[in-house]
Design goal:
Helix content is 36%, strand content 20%. It is an alpha/beta fold and 312 residues long. Helix 3 runs parallel beside helix 6. One of its GO terms (molecular function) is 3-demethylubiquinol 3-O-methyltransferase activity.
């Protein structure tokens, strides 16, 4: 077992950057002969999980808890794209250190309200790649600043569950749509593209990034969430979560498919030089009896990353 870990844990995974000579080489599913497809084993695994997707005490309970942290990260990232408007006064010095607490708090509240109104005045269009049963897609569609969410997945059973569950909330009518579709087949462009907990389940993650980036509007944001390839990740996500505590079904994760955060940054540096800005990258850790929390060590375990598409 230790030898397996040692072989899998490397500083650089050449498969991540492996170019696609042709979409035919990436055929993993006969129904989706695309470079962004996945293996039939992965599709069967998630097909079996589909009926229990919305059971908050079932096999996907950890994902339900993680969704709270994912939404916090996304909303915080979006809020940070706005600054005070011309009518909101913000002192040009560290007002929290020099002004009375009540005054500093009043300034902070006014700034928060200004940014809140700017964000909530937006009508963002969102693409959720690998949406599964729709946990993230539903949460995003409920946000007042989101006008439309499209969720795509290769597993028909997951899409069926997502569509069925969405019907229970009338507020989602007209805002949320699902489709069994490969990423290559998606048309249009989006303000926000999410690719969460799915890169570690595909054979060519660089192709997912390439196509996801092409679907992003200028000024739009791509949010990625996956797992670093290190011994700690194997210990927490496979040995503890799958084998000991059985929080996650066996076979959900394969450490050889994990992607280091630095590899994704390197990919963007090589493929999108001058066209991207890494806005934020945070580590995420599950604490039993508490839930998921962010930390600053993004090179260990799970992580969230936000990348903005900027003009050249």
């Amino acid at each position: 077992m230790l030898r397996t870990i040692k072989r899998s844990y490397t500083k650089f995974n050449p498969e991540f950057f492996k170019p696609m000579a042709g979409s035919g080489e990436a055929i993993s599913s006969p129904k989706f002969p695309m470079s962004t497809s996945t293996s039939q084993d992965e599709m069967k695994h998630f097909s079996d999980l589909a009926p229990s997707w919305w059971d908050v005490s079932g096999p996907q309970r950890i994902l339900h808890k993680m969704n709270l942290a994912r939404m916090d990260f996304i909303q915080k990232t979006l809020r940070e794209q706005y600054t005070a408007g011309p009518e909101t006064y913000v002192p040009g010095f560290n007002y929290k250190a020099f002004l009375p607490r009540q005054i500093a708090k009043a300034i902070e509240n006014e700034l928060d309200q200004d940014i809140h109104s700017q964000l909530y005045g937006q009508k963002l269009e969102v693409l959720d790649i690998g949406c599964g049963g729709g946990i993230l897609a539903e949460s995003l569609a409920r946000m007042p600043f989101v006008s439309k969410v499209k969720g795509i997945d290769l597993t028909p059973e997951c899409i069926e569950i997502a569509e069925s569950h969405a019907l229970k909330d009338p507020s989602l009518t007209g805002k949320l749509a699902y489709e069994v579709q490969s990423l290559e087949e998606v048309a249009g462009s989006y303000d926000l593209v999410t690719c969460l907990e799915m890169l570690e389940h595909v054979d060519h993650p660089s192709e997912i990034l390439r196509h996801a980036w092409s679907r992003l509007k200028e000024g739009g944001i791509l949010v990625v969430s996956t797992i670093n390839r290190d011994p700690i990740s194997w210990f927490t996500t496979i040995f503890v979560a799958e084998q000991v505590l059985k929080l996650v079904p066996r076979g959900t994760h394969h450490v050889s498919k994990y992607i280091n955060s630095e590899e994704i940054k390197q990919w963007f540096q090589e493929e999108c030089s001058g066209q991207h800005q890494v806005l934020n990258c945070k580590g995420a850790m599950y604490v039993p009896l508490s839930g998921w929390s962010e930390h600053d060590y993004s090179g260990v375990g799970n992580y969230f990353m936000a990348i903005k598409k900027v003009a050249e």
